[in-house]
Design goal:
It is a single chain. The strands form 3 sheets. Strands 2, 3, 4, 5, 8, 10, 11, 12 and 13 form a 9-stranded mixed beta sheet that branches. About 16% of the residues have low confidence. The longest helix has 9 residues. This protein has a single domain, classed as Pseudouridine synthase, CATH 3.30.2350.10. The protein is α+β, with helices and mostly antiparallel strands. Helices cover 10% and strands 24% of the residues. Keywords: Isomerase, rRNA processing. Its EC number is 5.4.99.-.
């Protein structure tokens, strides 16, 4: 059941139901105080960073009093669009608000924060590469990557569509979050590791491809924040207007 909370801010007034999302223990100190600022990202200095995003069909800017911004916790196995001809779950199954559009997509097999708006300028600020708006993901990978492995992600790795930009990568405690349905399939003999990954790009399945590149496939991916907005207390399928 969706929960709507009017007048809430993006950080201090979560939806009325659900439990607070948090991590066990403290957040890692290395760069953790900059996860939502993007200040520690280095500017690309090589032609190897050749990825160029496709232009988006952003909607026009609207007056402040008419602006709508919705935060939504997308459940697993839900499309990040409002229509589908194959009967799969879409945003329309949860959000009964007209004329809002997703600011960036989230893969069907990923979970977590989506931002929807009717303001094309705001949408572009969150999604266009030039804006360098940070997005933080909580990522469970198979195996235990070393600092050397993680340094590769921090510097950028070669993907099919070009080098990834430098990213913030930290090992984190397992977050206290909802159970996924269906549950993640683990291999009993192989440990898993949770990472906090902050990027300023938004390529198709980028985080999954980055971890696969260094030999540690992603088992579960939750987008925790976009810009200065985060999941707060939103549970899967819940949304609020801010």
């Amino acid at each position: 059941m969706s929960t709507r909370s009017r007048g809430a801010s993006s950080s201090d007034k979560p939806a009325r139901s659900g439990t607070t999302l948090k991590q066990n223990g403290n957040r890692p100190s290395r760069g953790s105080d900059k996860n939502n600022t993007g200040n520690s990202h280095k500017k690309p200095h090589s032609s190897k960073h050749r990825y160029k995003a496709k232009p988006t069909s952003a909607k026009p800017k609207v007056a402040v009093e008419d602006r709508k911004i919705i935060l939504f916790n997308k459940p697993f196995d839900t499309l990040s669009q409002f229509t589908d001809g194959e009967g799969r779950k879409t945003l329309a199954d949860f959000i009964p608000v007209k004329d809002v559009y997703a600011a960036g997509r989230l893969d069907r097999d990923s979970e977590g924060l989506m931002v929807l708006t009717n303001d094309g300028i705001f949408q572009a600020k969150l999604t266009q590469p030039n804006s360098k708006s940070p997005k933080t993901y909580w990522v469970q990978v198979e195996g235990a990557p070393s600092e050397g492995d993680l340094d590769k992600l921090r510097k950028g790795v070669e993907l099919k569509d070009g080098m990834s930009l430098p990213a913030q990568i930290e090992v984190m405690s397992e977050p206290v979050v909802w159970e996924r349905t269906p549950p993640v399939r683990f291999r009993a003999a192989i440990p898993t590791t949770w990472l906090a990954i902050t990027i300023i790009e938004g390529r198709n399945r980028q985080v999954r491809r980055m971890t696969a590149n260094i030999g540690f496939p992603t088992l579960r991916l939750i987008r925790y924040s976009m810009g200065n907005m985060n999941l707060g207390q939103l549970q899967p399928g819940e949304w609020k207007e801010i």
